Amino acid sequence: HKQPTENLEPETLALPLSELFSEGLAACKDGRYPKAIKYLEDYCHSCRERNRQNYLQATMWLIKAYQIGG
Length: 70
Prior knowledge:
Blueprint: H1 17-29, H2 33-46, H3 53-69
């Protein structure tokens, strides 16, 4: 007997989007680039509204983190 799948969505992130965004930016500003990349990638991947100011800002910081942090 198979268990019904409760939801077909991928696993939800531990943090809400707004927190991923602010943590990612804070990590960038502190020079913690690997951490920043993780937060911002999660944020950008999960963000549904691609034309939001936060999304554009997160993308710019992510590029910066890639460049500096490798």
